[in-house]
Amino acid sequence: MFKLIKGVRDINRFREILTILFEEGFDFLIAKIKLKHKVPVTKRVKARIEKKKTFSIEKRLRLTLERLGPTFIKFGQVLSVRPDLIPKSYTKELEKLQDKVPQFPYAVAKQQIKKELGKDINEIFTKFEKKPIASASISQVHKAILKDNKKVAVKIQRPNVREIMETDVEIMFYIAKLLEKYMPKIRKFNPTKIIEEFSKWTEKELDFKREAINAKRFAKNFSRDKTVKIPEIYDEFTTNRILVMGFIDGTGLHNIKQIKSKKINLTPLIEHGFNAVLTQVFVHGFFHADPHPGNIIITNDKKIAFVDFGIVGHFDENLKAKSIDLFYGVIERDAEKIADTLIDLSDSHIEDKEELKYEISDILESMQESDIIHIKVSRVLEEIMDTSLSYGLKIPMPFVLFGKTIITLEGIALKYNSKFNLVGTSKPFVEKLIAKRYNPVYQFNNFMKSMLRFKKFTEEFPDKTSKALERIEKGTIKVDIEDTDIKKLSLEIDKSGNRVAYSMLIAALLIVAALTINFGAPIIFNMPLIPLLSFSLAMILSWVLLVSILKEKNIIK
User: Could you give the C-alpha distances from 423 to 178, 284, 384, 512, in angstroms and in order?
Assistant: First the structure.
């Protein structure tokens, strides 16, 4: 995260930002936070004379952010996926934000490569196209050929963009503190916390080595999938500011005319692309969180390629399970399942759960009344998310990114195929995942994972307890406990933990015996070997555990 200080170091940039805000009609905000005097008088007079804009406040905000530059554009893009923070009318407008940053010259690109890689551009590449194939606020991309004749895409960070963004974030943090101080209604949204989160987000996106790691993880996850392509990363030419990856020959989904001119049958490709995204979310728990048309390519050999891994979403096992439940609830039009899942996701209790369920039922009604071909799942998901937020349910950020990803992808698919049906495409995939939950082997594996986690907890608990008690004893809170008492407590906890672990192991062995009872060979004493051994070992451990307990209680000697 960028270093956030209490004041502002770059006064000139600070005044420039305030002046732009004033000129774009946000003078009331500047007055509220007591910064009006920071705007030059001449600029204030000129702004009042030229004040002719009749745009909505949402549009004015978007135009203002575009004028303020790359940092603020990024901030607006982040806010566009946070309907829990700003009204829907604002998120819709901020989705239109565009990077209007001019390309930096070839000479600068050469200089950046020399600075980062320590070699002249001609020492690394046999060919390097001077005109970039893509340009954005943080970087631009050039096509090149390495000395071994491999075609690559070279992503080069803009000179001083890190320093510029750090300065801007510092100023945003300062303004956020003033908003909290002078505008109590805004305080509840915790603007300083939002800027801190944005700072972390930006820091990650500026680190190209992190993006390289993300790309390699995607490549590993899809190594066996013949329908998906992930560009190769060249570590020897990759730094925090330079990223060299394999060039993907194909056409970006944003180039509709070119794709249609090639007469490509997109129907199976779109289905492959959707299945790939569902796999990322529901199976891998690691997904592309910025899947706009420019980041998805139809390759020349009819595969789906993903590029630009600066923004990714992460799901732990719990979020994966919840996302499957919610998505399946939408597909099956199960309002109760959806409501329960949303409440679980929010980790909160609401008094009017039944009302929430009825509202979700009303939303799902449109799906029931429509022909399955005409159902737009993204609209249903959007309405469900809006409804949950109106009930004060806090949706985790990764889940918001997931929802945004589904909405974006369905929109892309419908542009190319008006008959595309997300329900029909995704239902078999999700049903397989649901069925997997009831597979005995899957359940047993989950049980064993839980047992190992609990075993680790019981092993670490005595030591952690001792350390915590030591810290209490050394601190301002005095606790009169002798060292021997602590040791006795640790031993008791350790003993109890071992017994729990024994019990779980016995249970696991009995489950194994039950699951393998129908395994045919080998047979001993008219019983398959694996369940016989599992059952026998469980009985022995049960006897050992029972004797241990009875001895401790002095029932036996």
Answer: 47, 21, 16, 37
**Nearest CA-CA partner of 14 in 171, 166, 169, 192:** 171
Whether residues 173 and 151 share a domain: the answer is no
Q: Has residue 252 got a pLDDT over 50? A: yes
User: What pLDDT is attached to residue 146?
Assistant: 96
92 and 119 part of one domain: no
- Give the model's pLDDT for residue 510: 65
Q: Which of the listed residues 437, 470, 495 is the one where a domain comes to its end? A: 437
**Together in a domain, 137 and 172:** no
Task: State how far the Cα of 507 lies from the Cα of 39, in Å rounded to an integer.
Answer: 72
Domain boundary among 405, 437, 469: 437
| Arithmetic mean of pLDDT over the chain | 80
Active site residue 480: no
Compute the chain's Rg from CA coordinates: 29
Tell me which of 290, 308, 325, 340 is the catalytic residue: 290
**pLDDT value, residue 459:** 64
Q: Do 387 and 398 share a domain, yes or no?
A: yes
For Cα atoms 515, 516, 517, give the angle at the middle one, nearest 5 degrees. Answer: 100
What is the mean pLDDT of the segment spanning 34-48?
Answer: 77
Q: How many domains does the chain have?
A: 4
pLDDT in tens, 108-130: 999 999 999 999 999 999 999 99
485-519 pLDDT, tens digit each: 545 555 555 566 566 666 666 666 666 666 666 55
Q: Are residues 405 and 452 in the same domain?
A: no
Domain that holds residue 466: 440-552
| 3-class DSSP assignment, residue 420 | coil
pTM: 0.71
Rounded Cα–Cα distance for residues 217 and 219 (Å): 5
* Separation of alpha carbons 478 and 471, rounded Å: 10
Question: Which of 217, 320, 307 has the alpha carbon at shortest distance from 253?
Answer: 307
